[in-house]
Amino acid sequence: MGNAILDQLPEPDLALLQPYLKLRAISRDDVLCEQGQSCNLVYLPISGLVSCLGASVEGQLIELYSAGRDGLIDVGILLNRTACLTTRVMVAGEAYEVSAENLWSAAQRSPSLALMLMQYTAAVLHQMVRGSVCGHFHPAPERLNLWLVATHLKLAAAVIPCTQDSIAQAVGVRRQTLNSMINALQRSGLVQVRPGQVTLIEIEKLRRRSCRCIERI
Ligand SMILES: [Zn+2]
Questions:
Q1: What separation in Å is there between the alpha carbon of 16 and the centre of ligand 1?
Q2: Which of 2, 116, 157, 164 has a CA that sits 20 to 30 A from residue 108's CA?
Q3: Residue 89: phi, psi to the nearest 5?
């Protein structure tokens, strides 16, 4: 199927869900759901990357975690039909779309699916805790290197096709700060920057210059 949760399901359990899965394209900057809104659709990407963002009262956004073919967007909708964060496509791709009711109903009949959804929820919590601690204690240039390496692993590609605005939100820095950090990486020959994409040239050096959170990836 191409999505880690679906691929780990035993065949009879997947059969419970398969009639309700609809494959659709997800385009860069598509907002799948906004924080606080009622929403009934859950997405299981098979490619691309979706940024899950928290909004401040003033409307500023910061990435809390991202999900690609390893996950599901988003757990809050599955549990209470209300988005607890804003989900926006960072890298275009394809995703299976399913209603929260149909996924929930399949999970009630499939202990394997229910367990997988709980494990994924725990993994998201871990990712958010790690991100919060990292954002508070680790320097921004090291966080950028970490994000580049982690995203390269999620996409299984050296080219990260997303805008510098989204990278700034993901790393939790202003656009200007991101610009000067990424230009410094380009001058050192570690990345190559083009409008709308960053290519990693020296992945091992980026890994070595990441904060120690890299040890948990
Ligand atoms: Zn860190």
A1: 40
A2: 2
A3: -70, 125
